[in-house]
Amino acid sequence: MATQVSVVIPARNDAAGLADAVASSLAQTGVEVVEVLICVGPSSDGTDSVAQELSDNHEIVRVVDNPTGGISDALNLGLANAQCEVLVRVDARCLLSRDYAERAVTTMEATGAANVGAVQVPVGHTTTQRAIVLAMCHLLGSGGATYRYRSGDVPRKATSAYLGVFRTSAVRAVGGWDTGFARNEDAELNRRLIEAGHQVWLDPHLRVDYEPRATLRGLARQYFDYGWWRRRMVARHRVVQLRQLAAPAILLGVTVGIVVAATVSIGFLLIPASYLALLMIAAAFTRGPATIGERILIIPALLTMHLCWGAGFLASLIRGPLTIPVYPAPGSD
Fold first, then answer.
1. CB-based burial of residue 269 (10 Å sphere; 0-12 exposed, 13-18 middle, 19+ buried)?
2. Angular region, 112: left φ>0, alpha ψ -120 to 50, beta rest
3. DSSP 205-221
4. Exposure pattern of 276-307 as b/e (b: 16+ CB <10 Å)?
5. Alpha-carbon Rg of the chain, whole angstroms?
6. pLDDT of residue 295
7. pLDDT of residue 59
8. Which SS3 state, helix, strand or coil, does residue 167 take?
9. Where in the chain are the domains?
10. 266 Cβ contact partners less than 8 Å away, ≥ 6 residues apart
């Protein structure tokens, strides 16, 4: 008998891609998709109408109202309403391969993992997006994160992974997604799962397309938020990896180099100049086909990712420690 799964899709201003995300969820083979829960937040693009139409056309598609619009709130609503022991998280702008859930369940059963996640595959459609894709896939852009910079085809333990196929009971036992996190909510949940004795696995056969920000300005805001919330996760769990200190160190080094060069000795410009040279080398020798324009734009893309992530981390550090409330398990009294 095929494993039964619940699919949860947080949706807010996602009218353009929602129908395709639902279609790829319904098309899963090797498992029985019992329900697709679309958790809809306040939207200005008609997402709620699209979701309702999908529900009207498919008996197993249900709309769940998410009045706060927060992604953790949406996931917790899906978790509270899920009927199955296996919960498949799907973003409203991604497409799953037909065997995605089946493959994840197979790995879950073989390893006993509480979460089996995917590799994120950035896909760009414009020159700027393609340059951002190349930057994200480079070691200097991914920071060595396994779900972005991953070779080989053997599943392995990980500290986090993209999206995720979860054991519902395990996620409920640790309290679900923490609504105190507007970003890094998956990494924070995975940390609690690991601390509770569960395992998180990355299966490189699970590959999900991801469309990055279309502009450097949007990328800057995204990576500032990433740095901000990563520092808050460090404050919560007292766990930090050395690679996560690289961006703050780069920002401080470049800033100190420029300030000291302007006030003491111009020789200190060697610090930011060396960093810029490293980015130029990375752009010139990045793997994969790229136009000259795309390779040039890799430089400001990497610069934006590093400096904005570092700025977010340091701004959050200056703001001080964060006390995050502990939430009861979704669906509990």
1. middle
2. left
3. EEEEEE---SSHHHHHH
4. eeebeebbeebeeebeeebbbbbbbbbbbbbb
5. 21
6. 93
7. 94
8. strand
9. 3-125+145-213
10. none
Is 29 in a helix, a strand, or coil?
Answer: coil
Which two three-digit tokens encode residue 186? 């998956």
User: Under 8 Å CB-to-CB from 44, ≥6 apart: which residues?
Assistant: 13
**Residue numbers of the chain with a pLDDT score lower than 50:** 322-333
Tell me, what's the pLDDT at 242?
72
User: With contact defined as beta carbons under 8 Å apart, do 9 and 40 qualify?
Assistant: no
Please, which contacts does 282-287 make with residues 24 or more away whose CB atoms are closer than 8 Å? Answer: 282/138, 282/140, 286/134, 286/137, 286/138, 287/137, 287/138
DSSP state of 244: G
Strands (E), the chain: 3-11, 31-40, 61-65, 86-89, 115-122, 156-157, 162-167, 200-210
| CATH T-level topology, domain 3-125+145-213 | Spore Coat Polysaccharide Biosynthesis Protein SpsA; Chain A (3.90.550)
For residue 333, give both structure tokens: 């009294």
Cα separation, 66 vs 42, whole angstroms = 7
- Report d(CA 184, CA 72) in Å as an integer: 10
User: Whole-prediction pTM value?
Assistant: 0.82
- Can you read off the two tokens belonging to residue 197? 């004795």
